[in-house]
Amino acid sequence: MIEKQKIPETNIFLYRGFYSNQETLEVMKELKKEIEWKEVKIKLFGKEYLSPRLSAWYGEKSYKYSGYRWEQRPCPKSIIRIKKNIEKLTLLKFNGVLANLYRSGQDSMGWHSDDEKELGSQPIIASIVFGATRRFLLRDKKIKNKKKEIKFEDGDLMLMGSGVQKCWEHSIPKTAKSVGERINLTFRLIY
Ligand SMILES: O=C(O)CCC(=O)C(=O)O
User: Fold this and answer.
1) What is the pTM (predicted TM-score) of this model?
2) 184 lines ligand 1 (CB under 6 A)
3) How many angstroms does the Cα of residue 183 sit away from the middle of ligand 1?
4) Ligand 1 neighbour 134 (Cβ under 6 A)
5) Which residues lie across from 128 on neighbouring strands?
6) What are the pLDDT digits (tens) for 99-131?
7) Strand partners, 129
8) Closest to 24 in 3D by CA, of 158, 132, 142, 103
9) Which listed CATH number (2.40.50.100, 3.30.70.330, 3.30.420.270, 2.60.120.590) goes with 3-188?
């Protein structure tokens, strides 16, 4: 059963168990096979780094962040199925998806907000996770020592509503624990 939860003080909603644990195993296998995973070179503060995870972009338009530009291209079937399920639940429309594969605890995502101008002034982002549980952290942009940790697990859907990217940054820190692979898909609307 899907359980809807609001994260206090934020416009973030979680739909726990949006995919059941039996379903996620199968979906993860498909995503690993169908997505063209890439280790990209990103630019931060003028320096080039290899991003510490594998990624891919699929969408009706191109998408650029941290100095790297992804060209537009159609989604694989496995992603289209997930997108349709999310659109049915949320009554929203998305035209692009960023996929991230965290191969181990050494893969991570640094502090950032999804606030590129192509996402408009109030981006709404639907994020879904398959596989290992990792720490999902939020940090208030004004009060830097104000942090929250969200329990975001296999099969959960997170809806980041208007205002979230303006007020909060998020990150997935590295961990020394032995953890398996984790795939995250963030569905976006690009203008
Ligand atoms: O892996 C996650 O849960 C977060 C992904 C993320 O922050 C992003 O795609 O911008």
Assistant:
1) 0.96
2) yes
3) 9
4) no
5) 157, 185
6) 999 999 999 999 999 999 999 999 999 999 999
7) 184
8) 132
9) 2.60.120.590
